Amino acid sequence: MQSDTEQRLRxxxxxxxxxxxxxxxxxxxxxxxxxxxxxxxxxSYRSSTTILVEGRTIIEPxxxxxxxxxxxxxxxxxxxxxIYGRSLLMKVMKQGSWLPDDASPAEVEAxxxxxxxxxxxxxxxxxxxxxxxxxxxxxxxxxxxxxxAAAFIEEMLASRAQESNAAYKFIDEQVKKYEAELxxxxxxxxxxxAANAEARPGAEGxxxxxxxxxxxxxxxxxxxxRGAQVRAASLQDQLSGEAETAAVVSRAQEYRxxxxxxxxxxxxxxxxxxxxxxxxxxxxxxxxxxxxxxVAEEQRVSRERREAARSGQRYTDESLRANPVxxxxxxxxxxxxxxxxxxxxxxxxxxxxxxxxxxRGQRIQEVExxxxxxxxxxxxxxxxxxxxxxxxxxxxxxxxxxxEQQGLTLRIVEPAHLSHRPSGxxxxxxxxxxxxxxxxxxxxxxxxxxxxDPRVRTGANITDTLGLPLLEVVPRLDTPAEAAAERRGxxxxxxxxxxxxxxxxxxxxxxxxxxx
Amino acid sequence: MSKIEEALRRARTDRAEEEELPPPxxxxxxxxxxxxxxxxxxxxxxxxxxxxxxxxxxPILRDRDDLAARxxxxxxxxxxxxxxxxxxxxxxxxxxxxxxxxxxxxxxVTAEGGASFVSLNLGAAVAFDESATALLVNxxxxxxxxxxxxxxxxxxxxxxxxxxxxxxxxxxxxxxxGIPRLRVIPAxxxxxxxxxxxxTPRLRHLLHELRKRYRERTVILDAPPITEAADARILSQLCxxxxxxxxxxxxxxxxxxxxxxxxxxxxxxxxxxxxxxxMPMLSTRSRASGWV
Lengths: 516, 292
What we know:
heterodimer, A: 516 residues, alpha+beta, 15 helices, rod-shaped, B: 292 residues, alpha/beta, seven-stranded mixed β-sheet
């Protein structure tokens, strides 16, 4: 069994042969039309230039981080916008004398559109921009391409410089603004410091240590005070006790003691002397005297005591005051009292100071919070200001890079060339295409027709589709005259096809020689 | 159409009436080596079929150029493809029929479909065999292709003359055409009502007699297109087998199917795709496979 495709191709072959006249006629017609179109096709010239947008320059590593350059991709994308832009094309149009000076706006617009259509911008590589221009006059095409490239480079550099300038200006303004803010913050801090002299950094710590010192001294003073009071009280008590005992050791006692001593002396003298002995007589008198004095004394004391008891006062014997112990105790008591008074004064002073100090501590804390805020503001402003200063320097360098044309390197890699050979489909393409189309189109149409035509052309159709027995396929039987005519026709068809091809070749040769 | 229906009906009743007539040869019948004794009149008794055929009188034979100009195949043609095709066709038919002595109707799907061409060349292919003969009967009263082959003068008596009773003897309407062992019965004097003759029992008798005449004879009826003429339908009832000629690139599947349906499955022996376009410079022939 033959495959379906093979059968189709066989049928196509048979039918093509049967309709060879029509097919050859179509071939000749198509080739003729295509060649004619090729001959009359307007010549189009094309010129292109390639611009390298340099990704790295020698200066770049030196300026790393200091200068900012635009991204290359953006530049390639922008290139299209810039080149198709009205201003650039207008410039090119004016330079290239595309239009008379008195052209109407409509004409200008039409010419602009035509230029846009003829210009092609493409990215050949990562940073290669290819500008292509086409037209009918090779010289004009060449010049225009060059001008477009030049205008593009100029525009790119100018826009870059303008960009850096704008950036510098902006940063500069910002720097000035922050400078002013920084000064204001500084001023506020100064005023604050002046107003709160004590609120120096660390004042709070001082204050705390002072408070604790004061507290400690108060404690000490209170401790001493309590000691002194205890001492004074005990001295007082001691003084009262001394008065009791001193009452016994009174003057009368002394008199009696003296009397006793004098009696002992008298006794001794009597042993050796008569009562009349002067010394004995004196002694006797003295004793008498003394006894009188003792009695008087005793009477006075008892009288004073009674009086004292009556008036409720403690009785201090005068004689006591002359007692050294008493006097010492007394003086100690006085000292103790003085100390107590001193201590009390000191305590009051210390307490007052503590109060002051606590107040001051409170005040210092408040001031300190405000102070911290001011300081923080100041520091933030200062950091931004520093950063801006650095950026401004970067921008200044970028700006000078662009002014020196070091920032963006635009280099023409492939200059525009003067094209001598027209681009686009040439005559040879039309001729070859015509021959191919002339051969393929009629066959294609025939194939399509055969595919759609329901009439039976294969034996397989009868057997497979209809299920009928096919006994034989009888080929066409030509009479000798028909066979001869067919052979002739075949020759003629082949000859006509060959002649057609030869004619096309002749036309091509003439075109190459420049005759047509 | 009532006329056609009537003709069909009459043909059927005739056949029923003539049951005593010998039935058409069964498909599987073996070809007899010798003619039967009880051969009817006109037959030479005691002579073998081959001898009979060998004694057939041939007038002037046509030369090669004449045959080529009339698109008739011959044994040793320059371009043997058509001759081979008809040889194959002949063999296929005999294989399928199981006998040579048959009445085969050749009809095309459409007018100008090549039925005459196929029947003529099929007859020629049958006659290639020196022990066989073929008789072509031009039943297509409008197509004079076969009539033109008759070498006698204009107006030779033919089928309609016999059926109309203008001619009595069957021998008189069988004419040689200058090809060995191939005879033709032309259409004869045509009349507008010629179709009516097909319905008469005479045609049945005639066909029976024609087949009987030679054992090795194949009777080939060149009939008009089956879907276009009622004649062909009547004839298809009378014949043993029908060969359907499909002209290349001229008919659709539907037309073929309707023609095959008109013939009926029993009678249709097969199809022939005729007039296939040649493929110059390609020697292989496109041949239907699976049916040979």
